[in-house]
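Q: Structure for this?
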Amino acid sequence: MQRIGVFVCHCGTNIAATVDVKAVAEALSHEPGVVVSQDYQYMCSESGQELVKNAIKEHGLTGVVICSCSPRMHENTFRKAAASAGLNPYLVEIANIREQCSWIHKDIASATDKAIILGKAAVAKVHLNAPLTAGESPVVKRALVIGGGIAGIQTALDIAEAGFDVDIVEKEPTIGGKMAQIDKTFPTLDCAACILTPKMVEASQNEHITIHSFSEVSDVKGFVGNFTVTIKKKARYVDETKCTGCGLCTEKCPMKKVPNEFNMGLDNRTAVYIPFAQAVPKVATIDPNYCMMLKNGKCGVCSKVCSVGAIDYKQTDKFIEQKYGAIVVATGFNPIKLDKYDEFAYSCCPDVVTSLELERLMNAAGPNGGTLLRPSDKTHPHTIVFVQCVGSRCDDEKGKPYCSKICCMYTAKHAMLIREKYPDTEVYVFYIDVRTPGKNFDEFYRRAVEQYNVHYIKGMVGKVTPKADGKIDVQASDLLANEQLHINADMVVLAAAIEPDKTARPLATMLTTQMDTNDFFTEAHPKLRPVESATAGIFLSGACQGPKDIPETVAQASAAAAKAIGLLCKNSITCNPCVAHSDELMCNGCSACEKVCPYGAITYQDKEFRMPDRSTAIRRVASVNPAVCQGCGACTVACPSGAMDLNGFSNSQIMAEVDAICK
Amino acid sequence: MQEAMIKRAKELLADGTVNRVMGWKKGEFAYDTTPAVFETAEEIDREFVYNDFTQANQSKYLIKESRKEGKILALLKPCDTYSFNQLVKEHRIIRENVYVIGIPGGPKIDIEKIKAKGITGITNVKNEDFTLKIETIYGVETMPFYEAISVKCESCKSKKHVVYDELIGEDGDVLDSNRFDMVEKLENMTAQERYDFWRGELSRCIRCNACRNVCPACTCENCVFDNPKSGIDQKAAADSFEENMFHIIRAFHVAGRCTDCGECSRVCPQNIPLHLLNRKFIKDINCLYGEYQAGADTTSKAPLTDYRTDDCEPSVVHERGAE
C-alpha cells in the first residue's frame, strides 16, 4: 500500500497569490494513497525541508509529491531531503505549480484548478515510481575550447594554468580572432596587438595547450565529463610541422590578387599566405580557391622556394577524434553584412566603410601603413561622418533588435584618434543615444566631446550620396536643433551591428545547447549561471553569448574556465539513474532505437530465447549501456513495440499522468 | 507467367538452392488465392497459382520463414520487394535465407469490384484482351478489365524490383503515380469536413485486426494492442472516438516504415480506405524531409529516425498542422 505525502509550497506570494494553496493541499489529500497533505510558506527553506523529512519518518511515506517551482530549481533539494530521511530520492516527484501555473495565470479559481490537476498527475506518477540508485562515471581531464579569439585564448590559458590539458579549435589559419584586427582599445587607447599577441604566444608555448588552427568541430558525441569530439583539420597544403613561417613562399607566389580578409579586403594578399606577422601558429596556408597549382596544376613556385619542403599539394582534410570532459564555446561575433543598406551607399562607394574596416585603415600593419587615407583616391580625408546603430536596435528585418553594445565606445575611440592625429579633420558622430556604462567609459566619451571637439549630433543619417567630385553628401537630421543637415564629407564610417558567427548555429545543434532568436547561446540562468549553457559540461565564453567588449569578454572567459576547471577537478560525476532499458521479450531488434540514440548507448546482440510455443529461438535484441545513456527518452518513443522504457519516466508513468490530467 | 515460375521453382528445389517455395495456392474459388509454402514439386504442380487475383504481399511471411532451416524461394512482385527490403533493413527478414525472384506485378483484379456490379455466383474470371469474361452459375457476363482493378494497383507507385536475385520477365521503372491525389483532397477540407469523413469511414471498423495482421510494417514480437502493459491493449472502445484511435496509433507506429503496399485497405472487410492515413504520413515526410520511399533500399536513414542539422524546425510542422 502506497503512503504518499503531498507538500504544497506558497513560494511566498509567488504561488500563493494566484493559487489557493490550502485548497490544493485539501483536494490532493483525497487522492488515492495520500496520507498527509500540507502547505507551507517556503518548502525549500530549512524548516520546510524539515517538514518533509519529519512526515517521511512519521508516516512512513513511500512517495513524496512537492507542489512547487520547476524541478530544474529545487528537485535536487527535495531529493536530498528525502534521502536524508531514509527515502529513496527518486521517489520524489515535483508538480510545477509556479512556472507552469501561478506565474502564467491571473485568475485564482482557474489557476487553483490547474494546480490541483498538476498535483493529481504527480500523485498518479509517484504511485509507479521505483527506487533508483545513481552510478558514477569518470571525467576525462581534458577541455576543448571552440574558437581561438581573445575569449578562447583566455579560457584556454586559465584552464591550462590549473594543470589540465586543453585544445583550441580555430577555424582560421591563426588564433587571435577579431581583437587581432583591432588597432587600439578603449578606454586606455593601448595597442590591441601589443596586449593580444603575447597571449597568443603564451598559448602556443604552454605545454598544456594544443592549438588546432584551420580546423573545425565536425561531430560531438557523449555527455558531460565524457565528450567524444571529431575535429576536422582542413587541408592547408602546408606541413605544419615543417613550415618555419619564413614567408619566402608568400613573397614569391605569383598569384597576388587575392582579397586580404585580415585587412577586410582593403588590400590583396598572395594565394599562399600568413594572415599577419604575429600569426600563431606562424605557418603558411594555401588558398585552394586561388592557387594556380591546385586549380590547374601549373605553378609550384612555393614548393620550389620552400627550403624545408613543407609544401604538400596533395594534403587532404584530416579528422582527429579526441575525448574531453568539458567544452567551452567561444565562437565570437562578426559585423553584419551591410549590402541591404543602400541608403548608406556602402556597396557602391569605397569611401563608405565599416568601423572594422576603419580599424585596418588606421592600423600600422594595415593597407596604408597606418596613415588614414580614403580608399578611393588615397587622399587625406578632411571631414568624416560616423553613423551609429547601423543595424542595431533595429525593428525591421534588415537589422538586429539588440544593442551591439561596443559601437558607442569604439566610435568615440575612432573619433578621438582621428582628431589627435589629424587635427584638421572634422569629425561628426550621428547617434540615437550614447551608451557608455563601464569603468572609465563615460569619462572617455566626454573627452572625445570636450577635449577633442568631436561633433556629436543626436539624429540619424537619412541618406548618403556619393557625388561626382568624389565628396559624399550626408543628409541627416539634428533632432536637438530640429533641423536638416547636409554634410559634405570625405568619408563615412558605419557602426555595423554585430552578430554571432555563422558557425555557431550548427555547432549549437551538435552540442545540443540552446540559442536565442538572434543565435546567441543561451546561458543556463541569465543571472546566476551566466557562463554555463543549459547542457551540462558546455560552457560559454565571450561574444557568442551576447555582445561584449574586451574586458567583459576576458572576464567571462576566465569565469567559464573556472567552471570548466571545477568540473575537470572531479574524478567522477554522479550519473543520472533515469536511463533507458529494453524489455528483451518485446524487442523486435529493428534498430530504430539504435538509430535515434544521440549517445551511442544502444547495441544489439543475438540471444537465445524460449518462445511461448516452447521452442527456442535466436533473436536480435537491444541492450542499453547505462553508463552512456543520458535518459533523453528518444529511444522510448522510437520503439514501435514499447520494449524501450525509461527509468523514472516510464511509459506507464506518463500514461498515468495523462490519465490523471484527462480524468 | 505461371508456367515460367513453376518451372524455375522446381529447378531451384531440384538443385538444392532452396528447400521451400513461397507462392500462392488455389482456394475454393478461382479468384480465391492464398499465400502458401510448397516443399515439393508435386505440391507446386498441384496447387501453385499466379493470376490476376494473386495480390497478397508475401514479405511478412518471410520473417518466420527466413528463420527456418534452409533457404526459401520468394516470388516478389515489385511492390512486395519494397516491403521485403524494409523488413531486411529492420533485421526482421534474414536476407541470406531467402532467394528472391522478381516477378511482374499487377494490375490485379479485386473481386469485390466485380461483385459490386451485381454479378453473383461467380465461378471463374478470365481476362481476354482487357475484357473480363466472368463465368457465373447464371451464365457469362463481361466487364472492362480496368473497372475491376484493385485500389492498390490503381495508384501503383513502382514497377521496379528494388531487390532480387533473378528476374522472371522484365524490370520496370518507378512510376509517377497519382497516389497522393486523395490525400490532397482531404488536406483541402476544413477540419470539420475531414473529421466527418474519417468518422464516417472509421466508425465502420469492427476491430477484426486484419489490417494489422496483414501489414508488413506491423511485425512486433508483441503488438502494443496485445500488451496489457501498454494501456491501449484490446480494450473495449469507451466512446465512439476511441475506436478510431486504433487506426491513428497504428498509422503513427508504421510512419516512416510503411512502403504503401496497400494491403491494409485490401484486406479490410469494411472497405475502410486505411491506406490514406499512411499516405498522409508519407506525403508529409516527403514534404518536410525530402522524398523518401521506405524499402527502396536497405541502407539509407529513415527521416523519422535520423537527425540532421538541416531538418525542418518543429514549428514548421506545427504551422502546417494548423488550420
